TrEMBL record:
Solcar repeat start and end residues: 98-200
Pfam family, one: Mito_carr
Membrane topology, from the record: Multi-pass membrane protein
Protein name: Solute carrier family 25 member 46
Keyword annotations from UniProtKB, A to Z: Membrane, Mitochondrion, Mitochondrion outer membrane, Repeat, Transmembrane, Transmembrane helix, Transport
Compartment list: Mitochondrion outer membrane
InterPro entries: MCP_dom_sf (IPR023395), MCP_transmembrane (IPR018108), SLC25A46 (IPR039158)
Chief localization: mitochondrion
Gene: SLC25A46
Organism: Felis catus (Cat)
Family listed: Belongs to the mitochondrial carrier (TC 2.A.29) family.
SUPFAM superfamilies: Mitochondrial carrier
Domain of life: Eukaryota
């Protein structure tokens, strides 16, 4: 968990003030977070004990949702494939695609659904981890200035109530466009891979 906090800070930190960090910088910062060493943090920094519940909750829910959706989608795809190819013999190309691509599609659907469903909880989790770390982020609304993180959440419940009162329900979905772009590119890569794979198999037959 402390290493997750350190890597999260490196991810959202503005490029303007970011130093040239090494490969082991997240490990160093994580150890410093546990030991109370390194860069001095503000008094608003939440203790690691108060971050255990939201971090574990997010991880467990993400695993449960993704596993359930993956099995469900995989079951549907396999039944669809079996029923569509039952009356006739399938080509070697189609057989290879049916063997590998349902698993990829199921993983894609599971990851997409779990990330979308749990995005509000992930927003809360990230804000709790970053609070009090003297992190400065880019102002993505304007695009030409940076903003300090000055939140004063007392815990998970206070964070949820504050976001709902001050920013509304849309406050839980700030930055959601990045998720849309991520999975759009992921879907495009899957489709291109399928086309290339089909072409290679047809040429080899």
């Amino acid at each position: 968990m402390p290493f997750y906090s350190a890597s999260l800070i490196e991810t959202v930190q503005s490029e303007i003030i970011r130093d040239n960090t090494g490969i082991l910088e997240c490990v160093k910062e994580g150890i410093g977070r546990v030991m109370g060493l390194g860069v001095p943090h503000s008094k608003r920094l939440l203790p690691l004990l108060s971050l255990i519940f939201p971090t574990v909750l997010h991880g467990v829910l993400h695993y449960i949702i993704s596993s359930a959706i993956q099995k469900f989608v995989l079951l549907i795809l396999k039944r669809k494939t079996y029923s569509s190819h039952l009356p006739e013999s399938t080509s070697p190309v189609q057989s290879m695609l049916d063997a590998y691509f349902p698993e990829l599609i199921a993983n894609f659907a599971a990851s997409l659904c779990s990330d979308v469903i749990l995005y509000p909880l992930e927003t809360v989790l990230h804000r709790l981890h970053i609070q009090g770390t003297r992190t400065i982020i880019d102002n993505t609304d304007l695009g030409y200035e940076v903003l300090p993180i000055n939140t004063q959440y007392e815990g998970m419940r206070d964070c949820i109530n504050t976001i709902r009162q001050e920013e509304g329900m849309l406050g839980f979905y700030k930055g959601f466009g990045a998720v849309i772009i991520q999975y759009t590119l992921h879907a495009a890569v899957l489709q291109i891979t399928k086309i290339i794979y089909s072409t290679l198999l047809q040429n080899s037959v």
